[in-house]
């Protein structure tokens, strides 16, 4: 009997390997989104449809500043039998749209443009996500609020273009999935949980009043910080950075005035404690850039303008 069972186990194991060799290797699951539990198990991405490019999981983060920046995320599934490259994108909501990636350099998170776009090997996926590759919206025509939608055109080097409708989602509250409807369901679930919590607290008037006062104060501080960021000349700094790196002729007085305006508005705002370190770094970098331009040291100014640009984007919350 023991010999029979041993042979049966060996045969079963052999069949397992045979059938495993006939299955397709699953695409790696997406990394957790900001605000999500990093230990949660993520579902795998859909398999690429043979012979087609497919774009799923399209969304953008909110961007409260007209003239500021935003970001779009999605996943491209390459079912073609050859590599394809996402080379560019455009949208009516921003004057400039670029392919970017967030990287860590010496422990500092920086966003860098990738002018050649992103390569997607045959049969694989490209995942654009917060903290990684993303489509950067620069000099926004209008703010992007949760619930908004806008159009984005995505172009590939094989001649294909996709017209996408991009929903603006609260990236801190939802964890987008390949089916966009899942996000709306998640929002409703959050709203239901909040409603249940509100009903539960209904009987304790004192606790409810304290909670309301706390939330009201938080909203006021958040709105003040948003207004302070919106007042900063971020778009002008972006243009100064581009001009220095392109070696273009520029108005030195206008450049110095931009930096002076930036420092004035940094000093005029009342920043929350968690933003003070970032604001201090921006102020120091602005002063160094002002000195470099005043001394006509364009090489130093070029590096400082790029660093200042990155710090301002980080303040916006990329």
Describe the structure concisely.
With 318 residues, this protein is of the alpha+beta class.
The end-to-end distance, rounded to whole angstroms, is 65 Å
CATH class of the domain at 53-180: Mainly Beta
CATH topology of the domain at 53-180: Immunoglobulin-like
**Poorly predicted sequence stretches spanning 5 or more consecutive residues:** 1-41, 173-219
Mean pLDDT: 75
Specify the biggest β-sheet: 6 strands, antiparallel
> What characteristic shape results from the CA principal axes?
globular
Judging by the overall fold, what is the CATH architecture of the domain at 53-180? Sandwich
Rounded to an integer in angstroms, the radius of gyration calculated over CA atoms is: 25 Å
Plain-language structure description:
With 318 residues, this protein is α+β, with helices and mostly antiparallel strands. Among the domains are: 53-180, Immunoglobulin-like; 229-316. The protein is built from seven helices and ten strands. The protein has helices at residues 2-20, 180-200, 205-231, 234-246, 252-268, 273-294, 298-316; strands spanning 53-60, 69-78, 84-90, 94-105, 108-113, 118-120, 125-127, 133-140, 149-156, 161-167. Strands 1, 2, 4, 5, 7 and 8 form a six-stranded antiparallel sheet that branches. The chain has a four-stranded antiparallel sheet with strand order 6-3-9-10, with no helix packed on it. Strand 1 (53-60) and strand 2 form a beta hairpin. The N and C termini lie far apart (65 Å). The model is unreliable at 1-41 and 173-219 (pLDDT under 50).
């Amino acid at each position: 009997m023991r010999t029979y069972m041993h042979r049966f186990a060996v045969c079963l194991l052999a069949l397992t390997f045979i059938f495993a060799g006939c299955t397709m290797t699953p695409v790696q699951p997406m990394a957790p989104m900001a605000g999500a539990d990093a230990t949660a198990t993520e579902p795998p991405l859909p398999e690429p449809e043979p012979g087609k490019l497919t774009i799923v999981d399209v969304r953008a983060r909110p961007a409260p500043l007209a003239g500021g920046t935003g970001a779009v995320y999605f996943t491209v599934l390459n079912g073609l039998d050859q590599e394809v490259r996402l080379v560019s994108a455009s949208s009516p909501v921003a004057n400039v749209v670029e392919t970017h990636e967030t990287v860590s350099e010496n422990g500092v998170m920086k966003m860098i443009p990738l002018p050649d776009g992103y390569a997607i090997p045959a049969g694989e996926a490209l995942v654009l996500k917060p903290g990684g590759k993303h489509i950067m919206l620069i000099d926004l025509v209008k703010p992007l609020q949760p619930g908004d939608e806008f159009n984005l055109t995505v172009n590939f080097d094989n001649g294909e273009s996709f017209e996408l409708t991009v929903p603006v989602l609260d990236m801190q509250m939802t964890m987008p999935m390949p089916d966009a409807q899942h996000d709306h369901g998640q929002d409703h679930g959050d709203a239901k949980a909040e409603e249940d919590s509100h009903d539960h607290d209904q009987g304790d008037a004192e606790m409810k009043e304290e909670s309301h006062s706390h939330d009201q104060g938080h909203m006021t501080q958040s709105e003040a910080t948003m207004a302070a960021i919106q007042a900063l000349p971020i778009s002008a700094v972006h243009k100064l950075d581009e001009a220095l790196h392109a070696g273009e002729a520029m108005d030195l007085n206008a450049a110095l005035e931009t930096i002076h305006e930036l420092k004035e508005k940094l000093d005029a705002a009342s920043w929350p404690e968690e933003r003070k370190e970032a604001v201090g770094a921006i102020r120091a970098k602005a002063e160094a850039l002002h000195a470099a331009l005043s001394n006509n040291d364009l090489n130093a100014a070029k590096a400082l303008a790029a660093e200042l640009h990155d710090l301002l984007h980080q303040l916006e919350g990329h």
